[in-house]
Amino acid sequence: MGDTAGTTTDKEKKAKSEKNGKKKEWFKGIKAEFKKIIWPDKDKLVKETIAVVIASLVIGFVIAALDTLIQIGFDKLLMIG
Question: What global pTM score does this model have?
């Protein structure tokens, strides 16, 4: 009986080749999708960033106000304050 620990069979080579081919196709697909992306220009990016920051602040203030009102309501309900 011969020692085959260090050799690869044709089946293993074919499987490895197919795996590498699938990886290459996957990366080609990713590259193609990135080419389809329409990146915003600087002005649009600034306007949208400002809109997100303002919306986040407004929502934060609304949540803080509701939290305060609910806390005051519970305090009065439980006669703590």
Answer: 0.54
